[in-house]
Amino acid sequence: MKEGPDIAFLGSLIGDPARANMLTALLSGKALTASELAGEAGITPQTASAHLSKMEAAGLLQLRKQGRHRYFALADDDVGSLLEAMMGFAAKKGHLRTRTGPKDPALRYSRVCYNHLAGDLGVRMMDSLLAKNFLTPETEGLGLTGDGKAFFEEFEIDFEPLEKLRRPLCKSCLDWSNRRSHLAGSLGNALLTRFYDLGWAKRVENSRIVAFNPKGEKAFLKTFPV
Amino acid sequence: MKEGPDIAFLGSLIGDPARANMLTALLSGKALTASELAGEAGITPQTASAHLSKMEAAGLLQLRKQGRHRYFALADDDVGSLLEAMMGFAAKKGHLRTRTGPKDPALRYSRVCYNHLAGDLGVRMMDSLLAKNFLTPETEGLGLTGDGKAFFEEFEIDFEPLEKLRRPLCKSCLDWSNRRSHLAGSLGNALLTRFYDLGWAKRVENSRIVAFNPKGEKAFLKTFPV
DNA sequence: TTCATGGTTCGATGATAAGCGAAGTATTGT
DNA sequence: ACAATACTTCGCTTATCATCGAACCATGAA
């Protein structure tokens, strides 16, 4: 209770890439589970757990236990404002990052975020779906259009089981690797498993990387043009 | 030019104790030389140099070369505001620091800051001088009272050479180890050398630590009571 | 010129902490 | 009861980066 400047502590807390990714993901205002945040940051749950408890102890995060889930959210508006301020400042100065984010650059290209596709490909898919008007931004989350439903049925997504779930069908999720949104929710989940089933891609063992094979990648790019 | 969240970079920049100390020292608005900042942070000039160039490259600091000195100041008001915001936030949350500041805990007790006494003892001296009305806070810096002048002459400080110098006589200097001010300026300098001459203390080789011997410390505490 | 001072660059060392695997604790579902 | 899921704790490895010593450059003083 006696010591150097506390802004150093605060800065170092935000200064870690993994933590910063989680924080920016939480800037949406939603509460996310520990595993979701781990996915968002591209790290394993254990590591995420350590980060999260640190941030909670520091008063940056607020924890709500619910069943076997632990939902984390920004502690209060002050945290959000501070993060916004820092982002604004960084943007103004046009900081070119040098430090490497989490591990693998392949993670930036395509990875799982919890249970759906994230990374460059995830963002591309989202952009494509929005551009073709298959999805529309709505007040709370995302909406599925008629054309969209047709498109996904053509793609052999089975909507029946999805609609029974309590989880929202479409949800947008901020991507740490390029600060844009990709598709989450049960639809995002279903699409990813469909990619697996089609043999386009598969999970790399012990990693969040989603490895597309050459023809899978080609097909993907054709299916979701920019 | 493609990467993770820039707030991580910014945070890590501010997150280092040494850099944070320099930044808070610069919050006074004054421009300080590289060596002064090194003293302020309790690190060697080489290390400070590395930190300073990093911060300048990141757009946090502004550099003005003048003769063989390099004066650093906060780049603009935005930097100041951001630091203020972070300090306010940290204060509100009452962060208790865990990370150790620069090296040695003895540094926190008494060390040289450029050419004058800093650390707990430096702050104590300043407090004492203010309480006894030997120094007074003025609009720009510190003022020496009549009583003060008498006191220092009693203490055998020779004012003649000091008044010829271009450097200000009294100057307050923010102390990183406890966020309070100590006495800088040529008077601060003169006092420190007087302590050496009196045999109260001496510099530890290759360190910024000012080691008081037992009787020197006792005399010091008596001379500058709280 | 020579010396001193303010700063920087380089190389090596060391401490801190991020990350993961493996094993453990809860809680929910069947 | 059993199994599966969500998350944590522990121990270890690895990388990063702050720090310092030593040597080097530049400016100013004698």
Question: What descriptors fit this protein?
Answer:
11 strands; Arc Repressor Mutant, subunit A; two-stranded antiparallel ribbon; 2 domains; homodimer; alpha+beta; 50% helix; 226 residues
Would you kindly provide a written description of the structure presented here, covering whatever features stand out?
The structure is a homodimer of 226-residue chains. Chain A is an alpha+beta fold and 226 residues long. The first copy, chain A, folds into two domains: 6-93, Winged helix-like DNA-binding domain superfamily/Winged helix DNA-binding domain (Arc Repressor Mutant, subunit A, Orthogonal Bundle); 105-223, no CATH class. Chain A contains eleven helices and eleven strands. The longest helix of chain A is centred in the middle third of the chain and has 17 residues, at 77-93. The mean pLDDT of chain A is 85. At the A-B interface, helix 1, helix 2 and helix 5 of A face helix 1, helix 2 and helix 5 of B. The structure holds a DNA duplex (30 and 30 nucleotides).
